[in-house]
Amino acid sequence: MSNTRFAIIALLVGAVLAVACQFIQNDYFFNAAYTVLLYAILSTAWNILGGYTGYVNFGTAAFFAIGVYSSIVLYKAFHLPLGLLIMAGTVIAGVAGIGLGYLTLRLRGHFFAIATLALAVMLFTFVTNWDYAGGARGAYVLVPREVPFGFPRYIRYLFTVMVGLTVLAIIVARMIERSRLGQGLAAIRDDELAAECAGVPTLRLKLIATALSGGMMGLAGTTFPFFISFVEPVGAFDLRYAVNAIAMPVIGGMTTWLGPLLGAVLLGTVQQLVQVTISSAWNLLIVGVLLVGFVTLAPEGIMGWVLAWRARRSKPT
To answer: What is the pLDDT at residue 277?
Structure first.
């Protein structure tokens, strides 16, 4: 299927989903669905660098927080509409991704992973001491009284926006996977030294991947202040974002665009159910148990298992 046809189908499915869900009366569904969609974007974004390229990024929370705090600062300063805040936060996070790439992409393996974790620590320290953005005490973001486009609740509007952003992230990920860029990233993942010897511009491709991955992580964070209304550094840099962004592609499968989406829907739904029925304190434990189980039993994730099963069935007897 061509990328254009896939994009049209994805947009139609997203539109149908957004409209159909408006008939649900329980507003908690939209809170839970917003969180699952947020994780779908984060895991898809992480997979561009971690799955397609093979560079493990522990700095998810940093890029997510860039999107969060860019919205807070720009809304406080200029009262920009949500659409402009989303675009601005995505661009800022993408530029930060390029900066991180120039500083760290000559590192490989665990050295790169440690560098991305250090970025999150540095940004957390900076934001904690930035009084204009709320500092350690946090910042309130009051949603407009008039909900755009006639939605009865602001959370329903945010859910619809997140459906559109998720569809956009999936389209971008699929286009990368089926493009020459995706082929170059796969070559880097398989053997970077051999790719360099074959003439692949590895540094340039890694910078593109870092910019796209960071920008999409920031994209996920731009609407978050309007969802939660009160943001503090500890919440914006929460460990859950980094852990889930890695666990969901690993569980779903890291070599295809569909894997992170499957992992986010599966793991995110389980977490929301556990949060309601038991306690949110169990969420990270569940992530750890599932992650260990999949790494042990299905190291290629759900999609890897499915593809292997299809290959076995297609073999002539």
So the answer is: 79
For the segment 75-112, what is each residue's pLDDT rounded down to a tens digit? 998 888 999 999 999 999 999 999 888 887 777 767 78
In a domain, 289, yes or no: no
Q: Largest Cα–Cα distance in the chain?
A: 69
User: Within 13 Å of residue 59, how many CA atoms lie on the same side as its CB?
Assistant: 32
By the 8 A CB rule, do 301 and 309 touch? no
Name the residue with tokens 């993408």: 94
The burial of 50, by beta-carbon neighbours within 10 Å (0-12 exposed, 13-18 middle, 19 or more buried), is given as: buried
Whether 286 is covered by a domain: the verdict is: no
The total number of structural domains that make up the chain: 1
Q: Is residue 183 domain-resident?
A: yes
Instruction: Answer yes or no: pTM beyond 0.70.
Output: yes
Domain membership flag for residue 297: no
Residue 180 belongs to what domain range? 3-239
**Which pairs from 21-28 meet CB under 8 Å and 24+ separation?**
21/159, 22/156, 22/160, 27/153, 27/155, 27/156, 28/276
The residues pairing with 147 across neighbouring beta strands, listed in sequence order, are none
- Residue 106 has what DSSP assignment? T
What is d(CA 243, CA 199) in angstroms, rounded to the nearest whole number?
35
Task: Pull the structure tokens for residue 86.
Answer: 């989303």
Contact 163, 235 (CB under 8 A): no
